[in-house]
Amino acid sequence: MEHQSHIVTGKKFRFPGGKIISYTVFILWVAITVLPLIWMAYSSFKSNEELNLDTFALPYALFDNANDEFIVIGSIEGYDTAKRQPIYNPPSLINVVPDYNVEADPRPRLIIESATIGWSRRLMVYFLPKEELSPEIANLKPLDSVWVNQLPGHIQGQINWLTIWYNYNQAYIRANLGLKFLNSVLYSVVSSVLIVLFGLMMGFALSKLKFKRLAGAIAATVGFGYLLSTNSIIIPLYLMLSFIGLTDSHFGVIIVYVAFGMPVSTMLSTQFIRGLPDSLIESAYIDGASTMRTFVQIIFPMSMPVATTILILNILGIWNEFLLVLVVAGSEATKSLPVGVYSFSGLTSTQLGWQLAAMVMAILPPMIFYFIFNKRIAQGVVGGAIKG
What we know:
By secondary structure, this protein is an alpha+beta fold. The chain has 3 domains: 17-53, no CATH class; 69-164, no CATH class; 177-387, MetI-like fold (Orthogonal Bundle). It contains 15 helices and 5 strands. Strands 1, 2, 3, 4 and 5 form a 5-stranded antiparallel β-sheet that branches. Helix 9 (250-274) runs antiparallel to helix 12 (304-320). The model is unreliable at 384-388 (pLDDT under 50).
């Protein structure tokens, strides 16, 4: 009788500790970074009162506005061409500024104000043409009440839409976010382009031109600038800009951004250009090309991977920068979006709904920009910026 031996082989069980730790870290990262963004997005549609009562509840008041109560605060009866101002009834409403051109449209209008959102603070005010209202509503007196569902359908739809987007509308108008958006675009794009251009020039000079000892000293000096931050030298920086008359100017803000962006740009460019073949440059010199022509026609086109990476990183960084513009830019004409978001915070009160809406408007452009170019950033930093 033959005995057959069966050898059972198997793999040892390994406790998946690495995967558990990885998933735990990922979940924590989502909780710390993504969940606040979700909360900010839906909370931007909540009234200030809702945010104070229940911070994490879903928005309700601005969406459920069909039965909202409005109080009549007066009317506009026409336009006084002699005084060049609307005719208010009562005259004490002169501080209520119409949101339309009264001179071009002098029709009598009923002025109503929301009784639920900022009552008596003139935050949500509408000017309704009396000819479009029923006689009962058109003849209402000050302090009389009217509900949204009592108004004509097209006016109900308009009030419904404006109420839902109330925080965004108020944030955009009161903080003048349109101008601040253009300033942010100007600072980000112009500064980043100059950082890339000057960084590539420095990188070419430090890595390919023949002055090694001097190049080492310059590289060390530029590298030292990487250790400095805007926060650490903001006071002497402001005093220096004041002395030369560059505070509260676009040019003053841009040159500071360029100065602080140069160290990283120079280091990345130097590493990348050092990896380019010297034979290309020598061939250009043999053909009679000058140093500038060699840079423009050979070095610059071949350095596009690292240039794109530096450009994108600086655009994102400058767009979100806050302290420098807050200190250096004194007027509304030179402030950027982050300062506009901060403007809704005061010593006595904070308009949280407006501030959250402004934050969403400020964050969306860089998020979209990053999602479009995130692969380019990774390729440039990991591949091109290091190895060349």
